[in-house]
Design a protein that fits this description.
With 273 residues, the protein is α+β, with helices and mostly antiparallel strands. The protein has three helices and 14 strands.
Amino acid sequence: MKRKFLYLLLTLCLLGQCLPAFAAQAPVLERIAFSGATIVGQFKSDVYQYQLVLDNAAVSPKLKSYKVQGEGNLFVTYDTDSTNHQTAVVVTLSYDTGSAKYTFTYKNAAAYVKNSENHLDSITCTLGELVPEMNEDDTTYKLYIPGDLTSLMITPVTKDINAYCAPVEMTLAPEQEIDLTLPVTASDGQVRTYTIKVRRVDKTVEQVRAEMAQEDYTSFVEGTRFYQQPAFRMAVTAGVGGLAVLIVLLAFHARKTARVTDEDEPSFYRSEQ
């Protein structure tokens, strides 16, 4: 009996040592900030409910910056009420052993007023890059993702806080590319449809994460498209150079073979005797 008790005690001690180690491995959201809004109070990684003061009560806030200590993915979504009007930003830090969810509830959201504003302000995708940048005119964009990414989550950010566009969450096959349709519905019911062409780059998830972690990071897409590849540039340069040489040779040949006078041409000028 004593031996069983000792075994049980030893097991509990080992678990007590392992559990803190597992907890220590969980990533931590150290800081976060939003464009167009300010968090009420100081952000703390172990506090999960906050209020958010909007700079413009009618404009959607969007993720500006964040810092995660450890390995994890950050996903941003928007809570809405029964009429699809935004009420909060929800930030989820997902990792292998679980997740942490932070809710930032709007403190001063504008009263519901019908209007026809149905533009997207941006698109949030943790390991995605939108090309070109979101603007007033274009409705078709390319979203570049790592070549081995299989879990895709897209959060459209509407310009008007009362407009609605459903988020997209899906599983992709390796190397799969797809065209997505995102309808944005204004508060008066008018719809604007966006097309998002999901395309792959020849980089892994880990490579993209490493690039994004650099202080001077601007883009993981720049330089990866076909016309930006060194081989393509070399081919174009060689082609232009070869064409220039050909033009010079043709011009030289034409000049060398041209005749200044015609043997059959009569002489109009005679020297006076």
